[in-house]
């Protein structure tokens, strides 16, 4: 862990704090802070570094490791800092991976991804997201808030696992895959780095990082503190945000065989959140079971046609969609203490953690459902710009109806992992435990007067999860490792509601679900640079909290079946200095699949029943020479609803990516294009005779980046960095996703954010 120790110099800490304080009132930065990237970055000579730089593994935008036992794509810190916007969320980072689709419609990091991120068509909430191995998310539906936790400056390598993994892969929704975020390490040398970005949409970020280096007077402790502030008006109209984020990581050896790690994150966010736009020819109520495509079409233009693809919220204070009425204040934190230790051949890793999400939200009762001026003015007598009888007018006295809510939760948990050699293999065993308590409220309000007119929900709910596991990695031959394993999943959900959502009545209820989840995989090494694997595993997801929003969950048919999958996958990985190449084939049988959509800003769910997923994926990089490499990936994903025979809503059958990278000495340049195939936004039902609605055309987005990192032989100090990014070069602003419906059933859509330019800098003080 440690290299050359350095004495602690208090003046550097003071310097960092002063820089951070001056940074606070300013705002926005871009990805490229090479001076604060990796510990031990200067470990080799110039010629050795150049040799490593000039290779396919070093330049690959995504790649699978040779040790992979399921389809897996690794995105390195080097790629993240050189290709991603400083404001980017992890959802922006993983978008390049095979079978992943993710768009932030307000610009990178300016809004939670909408219509995604999806992995092979699995929605958020059907796969895990972990940070340093710890699963996190909302207990009510297992989803994640991409703008409320970690920023890209503190994320190290990011891994997209497209599958359930082995028995040791813990979390509430492993069957859909895992997005594994890893924090970067503190540097071995002390220093302070100031970094920033300014660019399109009024975006600006300013931040500072202070690294202590290895402090020999404090037991070889090393740590970093990173603070930044982001402000942006956003691509969508009247949809600005402000964000402050603080991240701390510290590591200290304990004795000769243990390492103690502490991580803490604090994030404050204020955002104005749009809901999507209406669009011709679909300004008509969405048809239900037995409906037709013709019934989904109307003659009126939509907000998209009248105001353009960047329409977000209204600037009219008489509208329920007025920006000042539609905003969130969100505060989050995430902390853990980790002790890794070795006792002979026994390895123990134990993390004790907590994280919290405190959300106060306000909105018009039906922001895009008004009857006048294409929904920007919610009047009493529609003016013909909205379907007759399908609008949500203001109150009879002209005041504006709205809603106020809070959702406040905290999780406490422990993640214990052990590993030891036993016979011709290694035994891995562990336990994950998590308890989350969530307080939720929503009231109907009169925005004009501030009065609360009704209470929609007032409740406390809890989710307790426990997953013990054991597996044995058996070295059957020098080349073949067979790993059978078993995991036991325990979920207990409770609700204590004074006013239950949907029913409006009181409810006190709890239910427990359990499941044994077997897994087995084979990993074969053909050569040091060529491996293959095969995997079979069961997946399980406990029912959503929405199943308790009924009068009696114990007898309701709405209540109960968990989502379950059986997954089969085979694949192979090959690497050399010239080329990285990997591919896989998968089959997933899904029972009781649940899909979400929003109506009037409220998320609803429906059960699709049985679905099947079949696909093939590949990714590779070829190093051409002279610092140039070519990258590509492609995926075919067929996701079929058994009852209707239709492709699952929103799931493209194909995704592809192409990239060109130049990385030589101080220069890094890239051109990356993501292609997403055609799909449909919704369907009338999941039974025979159902029809697909709202066809969405295929689209592609191209991003360019150019970065220069000083080598210390000129006016700039070593590690100083200047860069420019051009996102969405060809200004594609297509409708890319279905956004749900207004309160009276008019469909809403999301568009791709338009072209943007970001200028970035990073300046170290060492």
UniProtKB/TrEMBL annotation:
State whether keyword 4Fe-4S applies.
no
Question: What topology does it adopt in the membrane?
Answer: Multi-pass membrane protein
TonB-dependent receptor-like beta-barrel domain location is 309-729
Q: Which InterPro entries match?
A: Beta-barrel_TonB, Beta-barrel_TonB_sf, Plug_dom, Plug_dom_sf, TonB-dep_rcpt-like
Q: GO molecular function: any one? A: siderophore uptake transmembrane transporter activity
A GO cellular component term found in this entry reads: cell outer membrane
Q: Where are the stretches annotated Disordered?
A: 45-65
Which PROSITE patterns does the UniProt record give? TONB_DEPENDENT_REC_3 (PS52016)
Where the record annotates domain TonB-dependent receptor plug, the positions are 70-177
Q: Which Gene3D superfamilies match?
A: TonB-dependent receptor, beta-barrel domain (2.40.170.20), TonB-dependent receptor, plug domain (2.170.130.10)
Q: Does the keyword Ion transport apply?
A: yes
What protein name is recorded for this chain?
Fe(3+) dicitrate transport protein FecA
Question: Which organism's genome codes for this protein?
Answer: mine drainage metagenome
Q: Which gene encodes it?
A: fecA_4
